[in-house]
Amino acid sequence: MKPALASVVALFVFASTGCDMPKKNVQAPVTLRVATFNVSMDASNYLAAEDWQSKGAEALPQALEDAHPQIRAIAEIIQHIRPDILVLNEFDYLPQKNVLQQFQQQFLAVSQNGEAPIHYEHAFIAPVNTGRPSPFDLNRDGKTSGVGDDAWGYGNYPGQYGMAVLSRFPIDREATRTFQYFKWRDLPGALQPLLPGTHEPWYSPAAWAEMPLSAKSHWDVKIDVSGYALHLLVSHPTPPVFDGEENRNGRRNFDEIRFWQEYVSHLDDDFIYDDQGRRGGLADEQRFVIAGDLNASVESADNIPGAIAQLLEHPAIQGSFTPTSAGGLENMPENPQAVEHTASWRKRADYVLPSSYGIRIIDGGVFWPREGEAKAELVESRESSSDHRLVWLDIQLR
Known about the structure:
By secondary structure, the chain is an alpha+beta fold. It has one domain (6-397): Deoxyribonuclease I, Chain A (4-Layer Sandwich), CATH 3.60.10.10. The protein has helices spanning 52-65, 69-81, 99-108, 205-210, 248-263, 309-312, 326-331, and strands at 6-8, 11-13, 24-26, 30-41, 85-91, 122-124, 163-167, 177-178, 218-225, 228-235, 287-293, 350-354, 359-366, 391-397. The radius of gyration is 21 Å and the shape is globular. The two termini are 24 Å apart. Pfam families: Exo_endo_phos (PF03372). Keywords: Endonuclease, Exonuclease, Hydrolase, Nuclease.
């Protein structure tokens, strides 16, 4: 694996022909590594199912305190790949516990199995909709439990399946935008779920009026990469399964992905509003990277057709480069597309997609060693680390 790329050289071009001409500063290209990793650091990886609701919020803090082997393995993978900017999916949001700081200080900053420690001076974490109680019977089972399917995003406790960003470069917090409360109904052409065999809405009018688009959240995290503004567009759409004929999760997944399509398109985007009260999508000629577990694949029959193509085929996005691994192919040798898989359940679900503007792709990959190769034990099972694989991309800002 190549070492982390984070190099910048100040370049000054002088026009010197004997004339007293003004100096012109020319910004040099910057290379860096961006990665996304669904780390499965939530209660479902540490507790029996019957304890998720009652003890779930204590599971990750206890696992960190116990130096759980799964967390050590996650840290070892990160230290091995050494991304400069890293998105973490399924990292619980527990603001009273400082779990992100604890993970950094006690695991990433400490050598794991001989790997060099890695330090991130900057981090971003914010609330998510998973486990946030709603007062409605969202799954229409006759109960209003406020958890599981009746939470605004599926979760057994507030903050389950959260997200975080770690960065070696400064994060512009004032310019960063979150869209946790953007309403699904406010997305033009929203795929509102219907009762099977009818034209009647699945959700009650009151529930639909309050339903957020994001199962977790959507973030535009603005990062200053040695003078370049880079927008990290982070999300984790709901899986397009665990529902019924109404396909409410499949429809939500499609529209959660479509939000980014609209956000980077610069067309009639005044309908977009963030939690900070600002309107509009991303301005033209901005460098961005869409990163996260998008729960969508061109191979999947569970997704609404074209879900991920909304991004992969968008002219503002470089969607043709596909990170690969030998381990993915070994996991499903009969399928040539398995080299692209990012999850043990044999699909490409995790993406790092840079903008067409201002970014050149240098290299990329999926951390998935083959059996018998170094560190293969780290991806042996979900209990070893995660059922997802770290996906990385080396890019040049220019």
